[in-house]
Amino acid sequence: MSSDPHSHEPVSHDSHDPHAPPANAHEIEHHIALYWKIGGILLVFTLITVALSYVNLDKLFHGGNMIIGMIVASFKVSLVAAIFMHLKQERATVWRFLYFTFFFVMGLFLLFWFAYADPIFGTHYWTH
Amino acid sequence: MQIPHEVQARPDTGLYNAKLGIWLFLASEVMLFGGLFSAYIFLRLGADDGYWPHGLLNVPVGTLNTAILILSSVTVIRAWVALKMRRFDEYKRWMGLTIICAFIFLGVKLIYEWPQKFAHFGAILRKDKMGEYEKFLGNEHMKAKGLAPRNEISGHLEAVEFTFTGKDIAAVKIYADKKSCMVVDAPAHGGPAAPAAGHDAKAADGKLYKFESKTHGAGFWPSVAEGLEKIDGVKVVAFEVMPDPVNEDPTNADNEKPHFLPKHPNPKATPIVIKADDIHHWSAFVPKHSTYFATYFMITGLHGLHVLGGALVFCFLWGPGAALYRKNPEHLANRVEVAGLFWHFVDLVWIFVFPLFYLL
Amino acid sequence: MADSHAHDAHGHDEHAHHPDLTPLGYIIAWTSSLLLPLLFFIGAAMAWKAGAGNVAAVSAFTGALTAVVFVAATLKKWWRLYVFSTDHKVIGLQYGLSGLAFLFFGFMLMMVMRWQIAHPGDAVPVFGQLLQWLFGEAAFSKDALGRMGMLTADGYNSFGAMHGTIMVFFGIVPAAFAAFGNYVVPLQIGAPDMTYPRINMASFWCFFISCLFMVGSFFVPGGAAKSGWTSYPPLSGIADPGSGWYHIFNGQTLWISGMVFNITASLLGAVNFTATIIQLRAPGMTWMRLPFFVWAQFITAFLLLLAFPPLEAAGVMHLMDRAFGSSFFMPTGLVVNGQLADWAGGGSPILWQHLFWFLAHPEVYVLILPGIGIVAEVIACNTRKPLYGYKAMVGAIFVLAFLSFIVWAHHMYMTGMGSKVSAFFQTTTILISVPSVILLTALLLSLWGGSIRFNTPMLFAAAFLPQFGIGGLTGIPLAFNAVDLYLHDTYYIIAHFHYVVAPGTIFALFAGIYHWFPKITGRHLNEFWGKAHFWTSCIFINGLFLPMFLQGMAGVHRRWYDGGAAYEQISKKVVFGQDSFYWNNVSSTCAFLLGAVQFIFIANLIWSIYRGEKVGRNPWNCTTLEWDAPTPPPHGNFDKELRVYRGPYEYSVPGADKDFTPQTEPPPSAQPQPAPEPALVK
Hints:
The complex is a heterotrimer. Chain A is mainly α. Helix content of chain A is 59%, strand content 0%. Chain A is flat, with a radius of gyration of 22 Å. Chain A starts with 24 loop residues before the first helix and ends in an 11-residue tail after the last helix. In chain A, 25% of the residues are buried. Chain C is mostly helical. Chain C is built from 20 helices and four strands. In chain C, the strands form two sheets. A two-stranded antiparallel sheet of chain C has the order 1-2. In chain C, strands 3-4 form a two-stranded antiparallel sheet. In chain C, a hairpin with a 2-residue loop joins β3 (335-336) and β4 (339-340). Chains in contact: A-B, A-C, B-C.
């Protein structure tokens, strides 16, 4: 967490000209290559997603295309969150909120699915 | 009065106010899109067999838009880095590029993708009348595979046949002119659209008219037919539809898997004539059409609104908002970072939207 | 840091008073003070011409009110001071007054319904003509004797739906969460204002727009929404159909639009509250030194933040169903009036219920937690001893908040869920009673051994405990599927949740108003009339709701427009030796009396603002920070540097020179103890 102090330690106004580059300018610039690299990886995985959708993965296991597609999407999303959104270096305050949010949104999905998957014959839930 | 921690981070939380605020806002956004996607899950799981269409969206265009969003994510973070480095001109360049990306994304959606859907026609047939259209539905293929029969014919709307019970057909002709269409007498073909006896006989002139595009074979939007229906005295009798290839053989693996490009109706095919009385529900490929299009338009629409919102904020930070640089460059950098966080979230949502609607 | 100090000192001088409008602001203010009323008057004229006298009158009244407010605000320079203020205290008062107004309005809707239940088919006495003229023919008609003002079946549905909506989303949430939270939370944590003052203002005005939608919906053709406060589709999807403008200007569509604005306002508020409590605590104000009220508001904000968005999503879907004819919630094969309805189908009404209750169950805790917070403050202050089990209470609300997200489907047992899903939700529902009981027990035990001052706020807080207890405990049987199927659509449910929110939260609100009124106005509310208000309210509110338990268990259905007159066998069923009409009458009479005695409170409120006994900074001898601020607190709140040295409830500390030790009082040792957290710049 503290490995990346520059994103949190503010430029000290009283000792420096606010328009001068910060002391850690070099480190920040160092990250630029990383951002482009991640952008490239995201593009590649977009193409992989497209390609995978033409392969019949449902033959492997039920709902194969959907599950593998979502795994790839989740991987891409975690890259965006961790690197672009600086979550990797973010403080505990933010993480705590996100734990809860993640838990509840998963609860929303899973319980909806659960409610769908456990019907009583002859009721609204019974669709077939 | 000065609110503490507006620019400088609070030491124990390590956050300045706006950054905490945007993360809280994003948490609620996660729940908003969580609600939308859970609706998607619920409706897709609950859809009857064969009612979740595939291959209606254009994959290359979707991929292009994904790439544009990813690119803009990198450029917005470059803009922030430039500000952190106190290189104002560089900041303006990268931010300008981000704004251009945002508007390309919106343009592709609003000018190309959505109108294609608005132009498409779909009609769900009444259960008791499906027999008459068996040959267009390709249900023999469905039956061979033990699947439930389809009851929808889709395609491009070529013409609408109608009778007129009002006083003056001129009103309809004016409306047709406005839509680059024309009203002609319908030829007495032997199809199912022959003017029925019954109530149609009471029509003022008893004649069957045809409403069609001036450029023959170009078709028109179903919304034009909706407008026609609303004109007093117009009674729609039948629709002439250029069928989508999917109607011929719905079980063809080609039609089940996403197409690289949507398959458009063959312009040389003969139009199918569907009697209005045989239709349970018809519409363009808009939210009204099906739960698939309802979720598609709702989620891409709300996502598009987020893109627009983000783009407007960027425009502000690029234009008048950039003046803050002179007073407090760190404050501007914070603002760009916060707007960037929002932008990455918009990108993140799209990463799920793209496979869920275009591919799977 | 030194820089920030300089900033601060500088800031205090510069903003000693409110900023005035800019020249452009004045131009906008003047034009809008002329234009807005004009728009309302044009609307009034059009309505008059169309023969809608009631709409014309309401528009003209609104126009006149707008004109008065706008012109006064512009002349007296009130714009930034009282109208578009960013000060958390002004926004709190704006929310509070609108919340109280809506509580009273919602109560009046209910009184009309109670009249109809107790005297089915009779015109409302005295106000009948006025009501029929105001709400139109859709809601009222002539009764068998030709008297005007009999509530129609549609009107009953409409009033019922709007009573629920208004009480929950426009009454209690604004009053308990937004008003008290806005006014008290920044003061209690020692902050100069909320973190985002302008977003705070936007939140109120967003709420204001939603109010216009809701109130306006009574006056559109067909009247306000009729599908219940839960707005279940497909009923709410097919209600008030129409073409053209009527597509939008009908009760149900306006209800949904209003809700979307209301939700947005709540979300803006929730972000602001959470961020304020995290970022703006005064130096030394560590998490476990926060007053319990702040904790309650923090958790409430968190619930709103994460539970409301799915309903916003559902609201958008519902709006699309109604405006664009989509079928998110419209099932395949829907038959309306014997005809196959023109919807594509494939949607699920159950989806709406899931999304609605995903919010609406946490919403129950949004309604009750601020109340518990207020009661905790009042009890600690008036028993002159610390809260019993402060840490356990904080832990309990965390567990409560967490569990409240996974219990929602216990509202949906009637939809025919499978046994596994039911079992899951029954289990979580029973689990959630544990933290609730911890809270109530801690508050009860806080009374033990205290030297209690029975002033008005304490009376309300004390009455809250058993009444909330009744509400909570009667909920436990409902957690079980088998019992719920029997009780769900009876008055038992009505009594259960009203005991939680009416004798529960509303009593807590009164406790809060009597407790903080001196801080807000610098004067006490009159104690005698306060007590008169309390005792009468307490008797009548129990008379109103207790009989409903009996009726409910006897099987009296909760949606009968005629109170059961059409069901001979039920109405003659013996409930404690009386038929159900007898108990309808008892409830209704108590409701009218309860409404009447609220005028004591209103009169007391107005009288005391001008004539109440003057007070200093800390009239109740409390320990928390708001009592350290000047009375009433100025813009920026505090007139001294704040540092917090101790927990929130140091009452009757052995060895102390007085029976309360304010949080800002340094420890007696010469060496001031450093705060456990790093010292913060203010």
